[in-house]
Amino acid sequence: MKANEFGEHVHIVDHPLVAHKLTILRDKNTSVKDFRELVSEIGMLITYEATRDLPMTTKLVETPICEAVEPTLAGKKIAVVPILRAGLGLVDGVLRMVPSARVGHIGMFRDEETLEPHTYFCKMPKDIAEREIMIVDPMLATGGSADAAISEMKRRGCRNIKLMVLVAAPDGIRLITKNHPEVEIYCGAVDDHLNEHGYIVPGLGDAGDRIFGTK
């Protein structure tokens, strides 16, 4: 993990594979197929780091040679929650690493006048309050959608929440760390700034359009 100016709850995954794949994502000529696959792959790599603190226990197994007491996950329940629609691109990568995770969905739209996000859809597992939550979205730009998604999960009783993104802007990180200082943020890179349209610079463009081929 890379040390950064945003504090101990912000984790920048500075792995060579993540950096390499992000560079391909940034290229405007990358095809929809490749973009979609890379989003999933990077999601898988970041999940590896975001699950580093999962609790462990041991179990007795019989190898071809002998019996042995070996480490195993302690069975902590996880739910991955994509922010629709772009967050869907990360779900497969998370599930490859944590196949037993449940999946919730949260959809938001932004008011064109106030620019405030509003939740229009939220479907969660019944035991969501008992699970460790991984909210996923490719981009953390202004932070408004992530802030609203975290608040929605807190209203549902969730207390252990992580936010996982591919690329973040300093503005979004500062908003989340201010409003939700206990939430761990995992990202592949922190970019320079937001432009006048609220896009991350240099960024990836509109991740949803590039994942689903709707640009």
Overview of this structure, please?
It is a single chain. The chain is of the alpha/beta class and 215 residues long. It contains six helices and 13 strands. The chain has helices spanning 16-26, 32-50, 88-97, 144-155, 170-179, 207-212; strands at 10-12, 56-62, 67-73, 78-84, 102-103, 105-110, 117-123, 132-136, 139-140, 161-168, 184-190, 193-194, 200-201. The strands form three sheets. Strands 1, 4, 5, 6, 7, 8, 9, 10 and 11 form a nine-stranded mixed β-sheet that branches. A hairpin with a 5-residue loop joins strand 12 and strand 13. The radius of gyration is 18 Å and the shape is globular. The two termini are 34 Å apart. The mean pLDDT is 92.
Computed over alpha carbons, the radius of gyration is 18 Å
The fraction of residues assigned to DSSP E strands is 25-35%
Q: End-to-end distance, in Å?
A: 34 Å
Instruction: Give me the secondary-structure category.
Output: alpha/beta
Q: Quaternary status of these chains? A: single chain
What series of H and E elements makes up the topology?
A: EHHEEEHEEEEEHEHEEEH
Q: Count the beta strands.
A: 13
Q: What percent of residues adopt helix (DSSP H or I)?
A: 25-40%
Defining traits:
6 helices, 215 residues, globular, nine-stranded mixed sheet, 13 strands, two-stranded antiparallel sheet, alpha/beta
Task: Record the SSE blueprint.
Layout: E1 10-12, H1 16-26, H2 32-50, E2 56-62, E3 67-73, E4 78-84, H3 88-97, E5 102-103, E6 105-110, E7 117-123, E8 132-136, E9 139-140, H4 144-155, E10 161-168, H5 170-179, E11 184-190, E12 193-194, E13 200-201, H6 207-212
Parallel strand pairs: 1-11, 4-5, 4-6, 4-8, 8-10, 9-10, 10-11
Antiparallel strand pairs: 2-3, 6-7, 12-13
